[in-house]
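hey can u check if this looks right to u? its 105 residues, i copy pasted from the old doc so theres a chance i mangled smth
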Amino acid sequence: MIINYYLAEFILPACPSLLQFLQQKESVADITADEKQCLITYYAQLRPKRWQEWEHTYVSLTTTQYIFLILQEDLHYDDDTIAQILGVKPASLRTLRSRIKGREK
């Protein structure tokens, strides 16, 4: 009950602003795991059709992998921009893509 209250009062209201971080090409490397999960939860409600497509295509993606999909497939950012937002080197995106592909059903 306390956790649900915390999510409802503090985390969920911040979710739209976290999505704005992505839209404004701000780095999400320093946001907490809870904030990343909040972003994913908010996105799933914002774009249910896209989210269902991913849920049917992939098995057990991490929050970072979902954020990558949002950046690549929904916001259509190039690799350099995605790497900057995620706080990784552009070469790391190949590994991320490979791991996502490995989770296809």
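The chain has a mean pLDDT of 84.
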